[in-house]
Amino acid sequence: MNDELIYLDNNATTRVHPEVCAAMEPYLSGACYGNPSAGYRFGKQARQAVERAREQVALLLNAQAEEIVFTGCGTESNNTALESALRCYPQRRHLVISATEHSAVEKPCEALQARGYRVTRVAVDGEGMIDLEELESVVDGGDTVLVSLIWANNETGVLAPIEEAAKIVKNKGVLFHSDAVQAVGKVDLDLSDSAVSMLSVSGHKLHAAKGVGVLYVNRQVRFEASMLGGGQEGGRRSGTENVAGIVGLGKAAELLQSSLVGGGHQQAMRQLRDRFEQTLIERIPHTLVNGHREQRLPNTSNLCFRGVDAEGLLILLDNAGICCSPGSACSTGAVKPSRVLTAMGMSAARARSSVRFSLSMFTTEEEIDRAVDLVEQAVGKLQIVLPAGGGPVVRHT
Ligand SMILES: Cc1ncc(COP(=O)(O)O)c(C=O)c1O
Questions:
Q1: Could you tell me the distance, in angstroms and rounded to a whole number, from the CA of residue 182 to the centre of ligand 1?
Q2: Is 255 helix (H, G, I), strand (E, B) or coil?
Q3: Distance from residue 302's CA to the centre of ligand 1 (Å)
Q4: CB-ligand 1 contact for 330 (6 Å cutoff)
Q5: Parallel, antiparallel, or unpaired: how do β-strands 322-323 and 6-7 relate?
Q6: Cβ atoms of 294 and 161 closer than 8 Å
Q7: Higher per-residue pLDDT: 147 or 258
Q8: In the chain, where are the structural domains located?
Q9: Counting atoms of ligand 1 from 1, which one is nearest the CA of 11?
Q10: Is residue 108 in contact with ligand 1, taking CB distance under 6 Å?
Q11: Which atom of ligand 1 is nearest to the CA of 104?
């Protein structure tokens, strides 16, 4: 590992917490390799570990253990939620999502459109917020299969009013799913008395390993499995469990639960993020924050450096040891400007000048101060300033 690296791309993935690694170890290289479905004691040890992890995740979400279904990733959880709704209500042909969903909801919906379903994308305003009245007006109790809204946007960190939205949708007799992959562990979620029907979680976004996720399924809603086979996860997701991954996710949930209760790491991340953002705004002219300043994850800063090509900036920052992203990591390599930022009404030029920085509980003050200096230097090399009232273009050196 590079000591000089400043990792500010935690919305793409996070470092596995050392205590998570330690919890997983016996199930990877140690003696606990039994199959949780086996009837003998050796298998039962693995079963107990999986069930303990289920309790730990349920506690973080304030849900019931029986509502937790382990999956392979956030993408699988999102796809499974959509598929289940379609199977439960085969006569319905309409879905509602927001215009700023992650591709793990947007792409399956595009595929459903190609199969003849209607998909309504609720617009967002310039700060990335959806309008609940508009949501209410487009949900059709007779024809809408599912409403799916992202809890915290992966590019801007903007938080949606999920509980209010879920209540509106539930009152219309329609299932409600939320992609909460970026929200879990960064903001408090309480599903104990929730109108949310299903909710997606991903292990690698919260300091657990890659290849494990969760679909929360409210015990009062109908569910139809996509993955059929050995009947694991109460028949809701067949396939031999990723025991080590699940144990690690349980441990990560426990660690987050203890720090969320004290507000500890959320508050620390927010302070560091604000310090990073404010200093850059003060030092670099024309720096803009993309997304709602308050209704936002405490770890995310999506900044537009006007006149700067974000792709070029990322190369300079990479050379300086900073990892950050031009938007969603999943869209890296695509030349199109961010779909999320353009849905917020931003010009292609503004979207192409925008960079996402995302912190974690491991980000230090020293790293933030160093990152500010390095970003300032890199932007200075690239920024083209257009003085007010016209005049010659000045290129910073
Ligand atoms: C909001 C959101 N949903 C879903 C996913 C997909 O999660 P996974 O990588 O676990 O499939 C991501 C990952 O970037 C995400 O940010």
A1: 8
A2: helix
A3: 17
A4: yes
A5: parallel
A6: no
A7: 147
A8: 6-14+263-395, 18-260
A9: 16
A10: no
A11: 4
Whose tokens are 């309008």? That residue is: 131
pLDDT digits (tens, 9 = 90+) for 62-94: 999 999 999 999 999 999 999 999 999 999 999
Whether 180 lines ligand 1, by a CB cut-off of 6 Å, is no
CB of 152 shorter than 6 A to ligand 1: no
Residue 386 is predicted with a pLDDT of: 52
What is the model's pLDDT at position 389?
42
28 CA from centroid of ligand 1 (Å): 24
Handedness of CA 202, 208, 212, 213 (dihedral sign): negative
Tell me yes or no: is domain 6-14+263-395 CATH 3.90.1150.10.
yes
Alpha-carbon 276 to chain mean position: 21
CA of 181 to the centre of ligand 1 (A): 6
Residue whose CB lies within 8 A of the most ligand 1 atoms, among 182, 207, 331, 356, for a mutation test: 182
How many beta carbons lie within 10 A of that of residue 203, not counting itself? 33
Q: Active-site residue 109, yes or no? A: no
**DSSP calls for 49-72:** HHHHHHHHHHHHHT--GGGEEEES
Residue 281 is classified by DSSP as: H
d(CA 46, CA 41): 9
Q: Tokens standing for 122? A: 């609720």
Fold of 18-260: Aspartate Aminotransferase; domain 2 (3.40.640)
Place of tokens 């310039």: 126
Residue 269's CB: how many other CB atoms inside 10 A?
22
Ligand 1 pocket member 184 (CB < 6 A): no
